[in-house]
Amino acid sequence: MNLATRYLGLPLRSPFVVGASPLCDDAPLARQLQDAGAGAVVMRSLFEEQLEPPAAASGNLGLGFPEYADYQFSPDHYLRQLDLLKEQLTIPVIASLNGHQPGAWTEFAVCLERAGADAIELNFYQVVTNPAIAADQVETEMLRTVAEIADAVHIPVAVKLSPFHSSVAQLAVALELAGAAGIVVFNRFFQPDVDPDTLEARPVLHLSEPSELLLRLRWLAILSPQVRGSLAVSGGVHSAADAAKALLTGAHAVQVVSVVLRHGPPVLQTLLRGLEIWMREQGFADLADFRGRLNLARCRDSSAFERANYIRTLQSM
Ligand SMILES: Cc1cc2nc3c(=O)[nH]c(=O)nc-3n(C[C@H](O)[C@H](O)[C@H](O)COP(=O)(O)O)c2cc1C
């Protein structure tokens, strides 16, 4: 049974990639993830606000950003942790930068490459609240940032994309043209809640649910025939069947975070074993035998992923 895959041009022995999270803050824990079968790991993000003076980075000084010392990793600490992970692990280590506009923080990508990162994942977490900012302005800045970073480093750059763009497929193709080697589908927004007793808004961090995978499956299926680079799923993979679905719709790699936070590193063995059992039952010997089989170009009823299905579903009730 061959579970090897290529992601961002990197050969991975398994499609399961431990996604950006605190799971790699501790090198011995990262070793356990590797021993349990992870194909690669992504470090937690380093934020633009840590790499530039907040006023210059965001104009949002005083709007609730953490104080410098409150971030888990300073930039120096981040580089030391990357160095340590590279020393301890044989699987690829992907660094993560989180920001939203070109600037000095993008230069840090070069430091990450020098410290041994095998790839960089860019997270464009952005909540645009200013009505004067148009959609194309947001996307032009993203493309400029990707081009700037992809030009500055020789390692592959992936973009963790938000699903909240008007034309996700167009943007994904444009990101590739700007130099992205892959797209992570999707960024997961943490939604603040509102407390009706204290009359305050409060941040909440919920781990994901399997139902969140459906949005990702649709877009993997749509993007898979359109992009030439890699696709990874992130969000809602909790079982081997979930992983099989993501691979069938076109993912090269399957990122997992919540399921590992809930059950610990051994869950990776369970996911790998479950995927092998499913492949055996279906008569597949290699991931390449079925990757993308249910993408928009190859599945028997592509309308399932399109508007037609929305109408059919509503009319069936
Ligand atoms: C505790 C925690 C910390 C996270 N930190 C980051 C981060 O630093 N950068 C990032 O891009 N995503 C971060 N994420 C998001 C995950 O990488 C992932 O996209 C999300 O949890 C959805 O995947 P899942 O369903 O497998 O959990 C974090 C998620 C959790 C739960």
Give a written overview of the molecule.
By secondary structure, this protein is of the alpha/beta class. The protein has a single domain (5-315), classed as Alpha-Beta Barrel (TIM Barrel). Helices cover 38% and strands 16% of the residues. The protein has 12 helices and 12 strands. The protein has helices spanning 27-35, 48-51, 54-58, 75-88, 108-114, 135-152, 168-178, 213-223, 240-248, 258-263, 267-282, 307-315, and strands at 5-7, 10-12, 16-18, 40-47, 93-98, 119-123, 157-161, 182-185, 193-195, 200-202, 230-234, 253-256. The strands form 3 sheets. An 8-stranded parallel barrel has the order 3-4-5-6-7-8-11-12, surrounded by 8 helices. β1 and β2 (10-12) form a beta hairpin. The longest helix has 18 residues, at 135-152. The protein is globular, with a radius of gyration of 20 Å. Residues 56-62 have low confidence and may be disordered. It binds flavin mononucleotide (FMN). Flavin mononucleotide binds at residues 19-22, 44-45, 96, 98, 123, 160, 188, 207-208, 234-237, 256-258, 261.
Give the SSE map.
Elements: E1 5-7, E2 10-12, E3 16-18, H1 27-35, E4 40-47, H2 48-51, H3 54-58, H4 75-88, E5 93-98, H5 108-114, E6 119-123, H6 135-152, E7 157-161, H7 168-178, E8 182-185, E9 193-195, E10 200-202, H8 213-223, E11 230-234, H9 240-248, E12 253-256, H10 258-263, H11 267-282, H12 307-315
Parallel strand pairs: 3-4, 3-12, 4-5, 5-6, 6-7, 7-8, 8-11, 11-12
Antiparallel strand pairs: 1-2, 9-10
Bound molecules: flavin mononucleotide.
Residues 19-22, 44-45, 96, 98, 123, 160, 188, 207-208, 234-237, 256-258, 261 line the site of flavin mononucleotide.
